[in-house]
Structures are given as structure tokens and as C-alpha cells.
Write a structure and sequence with these properties.
Strands 1, 2, 3, 4, 5 and 6 form a six-stranded antiparallel sheet that branches. Strand 2 and strand 3 form a beta hairpin. The protein contains four helices and six strands. The chain has 209 residues and is α+β, with helices and mostly antiparallel strands.
Length: 209
């Protein structure tokens, strides 16, 4: 009787142990799957702009700065390699730095580059199209990758620099002046006529009589 009980105990222990081992294996597989998913998501999350030089020119006497105009060819992709736009099959794109004619991440990556340089810019979503994306081509929160070839760099002239720097300040100074003139005009228009004006109207009426 005791031997039979011992055999039953061993059998139930073996069954319990096998069940626990299977459960542990299933849990490990699930944890590995979740870890892979989170790892893939983390790989697709880029917090900062990353710029890598693919080709450097032999000499670089001029580096681009704000206000300069660049002539470039570019190819933009999603992180899965899908091309969203390219200028290679079209005419080159002209970009005047500081005018916000391209997405912020691309504009920032073009500061400090040379003619003949090729770069790869990995642009986080907040410096691209953000949470809304650009349907149907670009989904929300998409990280973009741009390969850019700088064909030419034209530095801004002194006149362009003066216009870009001084003209906004002049406009800011003129706004209060214009508002003051408009306010003065409205005040005069709303104020009652003076006593001399009233006398003149009375004299006109008396002459008519």
C-alpha cells in the first residue's frame, strides 16, 4: 500500500513538474515575443536628428549657413525603405535656408554642408510631419530618412543679409506707428465737432435764410 502511494505521489509530482515546465516555457516565449515587439518599436523611435556623411568632397571652402541657397537632389524614405518622394527624376530642388520651404529636420541637416557632399538624415517625426503625417503617403509619427546630394551652395549677398535681418525689424517698428495713426484717425472721427465748426454751420444756415 505504501509503495503504491509512493508511486502515485511520484506520478503526480512528475505531472505537476511537467505542467510547470510547459507553463514556464510558454511564458518565456510570450516574454520573448513582447520584447521583440518593444525592441522593434524602439528602433523606429528616433528622438533627435541624426546626420551621417556618405560622401565628402576633396575640398570644402564654403559651408552652408542660414540665408544661403542650396541646390540639391534628395530621396526621402520611410524606415521600412518605402520611397515617399525623390527629385532624382526631376529638376534639382532649390532650398533657401531659413525660409521653411522644407520640413524642419531636412532644413537643419543642410546647415554646414559643402558643395559635392552627400548626407543621410534620419529625421524624427516631430521634425517632419508629426502625429498627423501626410496621408496617404506618410503615416502619423513616422520617422523619415533622407539621402541628399548637395549640388551647389550659393551664399547670400550683403544686400540679401541686410534685407533678411533689417527688414523684419523695420516692419516691427512700423506696426506700432501704423496702429497709432489708425487710432488717432478713429478718435478724431468719433469726437464731436468743435465750437468753431458749429458757428460756421450756423452762419451758413442764416445766410440761406
Amino acid at each position: 500500500m505504501q509503495n503504491r502511494f509512493t508511486q502515485l505521489s511520484r506520478s503526480s509530482f512528475s505531472t505537476t513538474y511537467a505542467f510547470e515546465m510547459k507553463s514556464a516555457a510558454i511564458i518565456l516565449v510570450l516574454l520573448a515575443s513582447v520584447t521583440c515587439v518593444f525592441t522593434q518599436e524602439e528602433e523606429n523611435v528616433v528622438e533627435e536628428l541624426l546626420v551621417e556623411t556618405l560622401v565628402s568632397p576633396e575640398s570644402c571652402s564654403v559651408r552652408s549657413a542660414m540665408g544661403d541657397t542650396l541646390q540639391i537632389h534628395y530621396t526621402g524614405k520611410l524606415m521600412d525603405g518605402k520611397v515617399i518622394d525623390t527629385s532624382v527624376t526631376r529638376d534639382p530642388l532649390f532650398v533657401e535656408l531659413g525660409k521653411k520651404t522644407v520640413i524642419p529636420g531636412l532644413e537643419q541637416s543642410l546647415i554646414g554642408v559643402c558643395e559635392g557632399q552627400k548626407i543621410k538624415a534620419t529625421i524624427p517625426s516631430h521634425l517632419a510631419y508629426g502625429k498627423r503625417g501626410y496621408p496617404p503617403t506618410i503615416p502619423g509619427d513616422a520617422v523619415l530618412e533622407f539621402e541628399v546630394e548637395v549640388l551647389a551652395v550659393a551664399q547670400q549677398t550683403r544686400w540679401q543679409r541686410m534685407v533678411n535681418e533689417v527688414f523684419p525689424l523695420v516692419c516691427l517698428a512700423l506696426v506700432p506707428t501704423l496702429l497709432g495713426l489708425v487710432g488717432l484717425y478713429l478718435y478724431k472721427k468719433a469726437s464731436p465737432p468743435s465750437s468753431q465748426g458749429r458757428k460756421k454751420t450756423k452762419d451758413k444756415k442764416s445766410k440761406k435764410k
